[in-house]
Known about the structure:
Layout: E1 7-9, H1 20-23, E2 31-35, H2 38-42, H3 48-67, E3 71-75, H4 86-97, E4 102-105, H5 110-117, E5 123-126, H6 135-142, H7 150-161, E6 165-166, E7 169-170, H8 201-213, H9 230-243, H10 245-251, H11 268-273, H12 278-290, H13 296-320, H14 348-360, H15 365-379, H16 383-393, H17 399-410, H18 427-433, H19 454-465, H20 467-470, H21 474-484, H22 488-506
Parallel strand pairs: 1-2, 1-4, 2-3, 4-5
Antiparallel strand pairs: 6-7
Helix pairs in contact: 3-8, 7-13, 10-13, 12-13, 13-17, 14-15, 15-17, 15-19, 16-17, 19-22
The structure holds flavin-adenine dinucleotide and iron/sulfur cluster.
Amino acid sequence: MVAPPRLVLVLGDQLSPAMAALRAADPARDIVVMAEVMAEATDVPHHPQKIVLILAAMRHFAQELRAASWRVAYSTLNDPDNTHTIAGELIRRAAESGAQEVIATKPGDWRLIAALGECPLPVRLLPDDRFLCPEADFARWAEGRKTLRMEWFYRDMRRRTGLMMEGDAPAGGRWNFDAENRKSARADLWRRAPLRFAPDGVTRAVIDLVAARFAGRFGGLEGFAHPVTRADAEAAWEDFVRHRLPRFGAEQDAMLAGDPFLSHALISAPLNLGLLEPLALCRRVEAEWRAGRVPIEAAEGFIRQIIGWREFVRGIWAISGPGYLDRNALGAARPLPAVYWGGPTRMACMAAAVGQTRDLAYAHHIQRLMVTGNFALIAGIAPRAVHEWYLAVYLDAFEWVEAPNTLGMALHADGGLLASKPYAASGAYVARMSDYCAGCAYDPRAEGGRPPCPMTALYWDFILRHRARWASNPRMGQMLRVWDAMAEGRKAMLRAAAAEVLARLDAGEVV
Ligand SMILES: Cc1cc2nc3c(=O)[nH]c(=O)nc-3n(C[C@H](O)[C@H](O)[C@H](O)COP(=O)(O)OP(=O)(O)OC[C@H]3O[C@@H](n4cnc5c(N)ncnc54)[C@H](O)[C@@H]3O)c2cc1C
Ligand code: SF4
């Protein structure tokens, strides 16, 4: 008797032939199910470029699978009443084919994991082994530790992978070369802009579909030029390695109004979709350093982002469960101000970070953490609303990576699970690391002349609002002592400025 086919679910961010579900299946017997469904495009108002990216990459991957002799049942986004769901598509495909079982790789989103759990068909859920640290290993590492710190996890990952190791010791004698990084940057005509990829016919059809179905969303589709195939993702990666990696470390934390990319890699989206493979990227970067083509601080800094931060946040997401999305340790409750959706603002830093997000669906880490994230933190914006914004607006945003970065790193909403202290900063930080402040209506140092910077006023307000909490935190306690030693006149000026900013936010007025 011929065994009935099984359905092999491939989600939009699982576009690798090495996915566990594909490895566990048989092309001669099984049917791959890929589905463009409204439920996945409307859980939050995703940026149109992000929807195009995912659907175009899915359609190209379906072609790749068919060329490798897989049968692919592919549903395009055609439901007129917007009710199709992943589970619904599985049930429909099972009825069509006689399949009685689903093989799936664990999604990176608690909502979908629950939906598969409730699917009436039996679903065999396999671990997503694209990550270098399996969930169970992270859970074991975390168990019994009083605090979870990325730096210790990262060292274990260096030992585990052997990346940039000389025997048991870190290459160059140190684990972390960040002291050589964190420089500001200047406009530079020689800094190579990232490669752009002209859409082919498949991608153009998706652009037309998204333009018609998602009109009016935050973000345009003009000039869509992101890589949507494995070959293009590899070309984008090569371009980074050759032209921007040498300056990656030094310019990592800098922000320039006229250069949204600086020396960043722009690979998070293809990496998260499955078009690139993390260990291969790190090995390549190490080889570039060993060949003397990039400085150690650039190579180590890049590898730390991938095997350190990326794996660490994924581990935090996995051990925390769906309840993590509702964490709000600081009790922040303000609604998300209109500036996040492109509303007017006099803050040059917010205008630059949000404007770039609207146009490109991209902002680099420091813009996300120290501009939009910092403002949300110190203004006390409700974490859930901030999480939904980040999940919606960035090309690379998937819950497993976005939620811990937003709720843990940027907002301290997890009470310190991910980071020992909040990444709160005043306008002085933005002035040091960017050229935004020079053209701003506000004075970052709040020393007179222009009105005091909202980041600076709210920074101190934030420290004081949670004074009791910081008393036992060495780094934050130090800031309380700086406040206590400040002249009374300056304190009164900063408090009044903060009260005014908060009142304006609460009244929906421009800040
Ligand atoms: C509030 C907030 C939300 C974020 N949301 C996302 C998200 O939804 N998806 C996402 O992939 N990253 C997210 N990040 C992390 C980081 O900002 C992006 O990975 C990075 O900006 C992507 O651009 P790039 O490829 O040019 O990165 P580069 O700066 O060139 O870094 C290289 C790679 O390192 C990895 N990386 C660096 N930092 C992190 C980090 N903190 N967490 C995970 N991976 C990291 C990424 O894969 C990135 O592509 C977020 C950070 C913050 C502060
Ligand atoms: S002065 Fe303040 S509000 Fe203006 S750009 Fe600088 S940090 Fe942003």
